[in-house]
Every structure is written in C-alpha cells, then in structure tokens.
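Objective 1b. Sequence-to-structure analysis of Sugar ABC transporter permease.
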Amino acid sequence: MIGYLAFLVWPTLRGVYLSFTSFDLLSAEKWVGLDNYRRLVNDPVFWDSLGVTLHYVVVNIGVQTVVALLIAVLMHRLTSSTVLRGVVLAPYLVSNVVAGIVWLWILDTQLGVGNEIIEWLGFERIAFFGDASWAIPTIALVNVWRHVGYTALLIFAGLQSIPPTVYEAGRVDGASEWRMFRSITIPLLRPILSLVLIITIIGSFQVFDTVSVTTDGKPANATNVLQLYVYDLAFDRLQFGYASAISVALMLVLTAITVFQYRLMRAGRSDLG
C-alpha cells in the first residue's frame, strides 16, 4: 500500500495539479488554470503525435492479438509441452531497450543481417527505421515480437478454463476445428480477450522506450509518439505543466476507451454460466 501510494497515487495527483500550472523546475509553480489545455487543443504537434500513436496502436494491437490467439490455440489444441511454452515466453524476458537495440542492428540498412537476407533474395534493401512509411510498422512489429508470448499465455490461461466436454460435444455433432474455434472458443474466451485488449491498448498508447532507442521520433517526426513528445516537453524544454496536461489528457482518453470496451465486450460476464 505504501508503494502504491508513493509511486502511483501521489505522482498521479501531482501530475494533475501540475497540468494547471506553469512549471520549469527552476521556479515555483504558477497557476495558469486551463491555459495548458487550450494550448493542447491548438497544438499541431500534439495532434500529429496522437495520429502517429494511433497508427502504432492499430498495427500493434491488430497483429499481436491475432498472432497471440493463434499461438494460444495451437498450444492448447496440439501440444502440452512446457518447454514450448517457455520458448514462446522467452522474448518477453528481454527488456524493451535491449529488444529495440538488437532489432536496430538486425534491420540496419547497410550492415543488418535482415537486409542482407532481403538483398540475397533479390530485393532492394529497406530502411526499416529510416523510412517514414516503414518506421512505425517496424517498431510495432518489434514490440509484437517481444510481447506476443506473454499475450498468448494470457489467452492460453483463458482457454484452460473452457471445459473439454464442450469440444467433445462439438465433435459428436460433427463440427470441424474451425467451426469449434468460431462458435465455441471465441465466445467463451470473450472475457479474457477483453482483458488482453485493454492491457495491450493501454500499453500501446504508452510506447516510449523502443521508439527512443531506435528512431527518437525520426524521420521528420514520423515516429514522434505522444510519450516521446511528453518527454521532450518535460525534460528537454522544461515545460512540465504542459507535459502534465498532455499526460492527463491521455489518461482520460485511456479511461474512456477502457470503460467503453469493458461494457461493449461484456467483460464481466461469461457465456459458460
């Protein structure tokens, strides 16, 4: 409880307060009311960063959820190997910074083994982190590689709660694997999928470290996600009040998305009952 209050509740309340002030660390806070929020509404860089972040979220969530669901179903239906589950989870044990640096080397335009393979296959080298059209999808896929095992294990845990008798009844009725997946697995997995989507959406909106070590917002702000913009405002420009206002706005957006998604997917109820 002490840790929760000290490292979550107090910083959150302090950030909300600072969002109504002008504060640069060098002088006392000056109350400015809603000025930071008015600036936010008219800030083109903020809206551009929000668009970049949404692009990342869509790619990351779409690919990660589909791949994680596929891996989880394969582990549930085809194998019970603990070693295989450990291998799936292994990338999650690597920090985001290390994962970003490793993939930055692998996909380097000149020396990366990834581009060596692409050239060997007869294609032109791709500037994965240096091209505006490739940068965000590449960062998203790096984070998919790192997090998909953890997401798959969450879904796998949900699959474990589905009674085997339901599948046995489906086989007796002549249902194919695809029909059982569509009519049994997905409906009964809805509460877990809701939880997974909420967790991954919140995490995707907070992406920072992978972007920071690979592109740092480049090229031409094509990867300038919201968290990177907040960091730049706070620690490079010392505009802590405005940075806090953006953080509070993001928190409200994520809260609204979470509540809407929870109710839309009826996350609190299961069809097993």
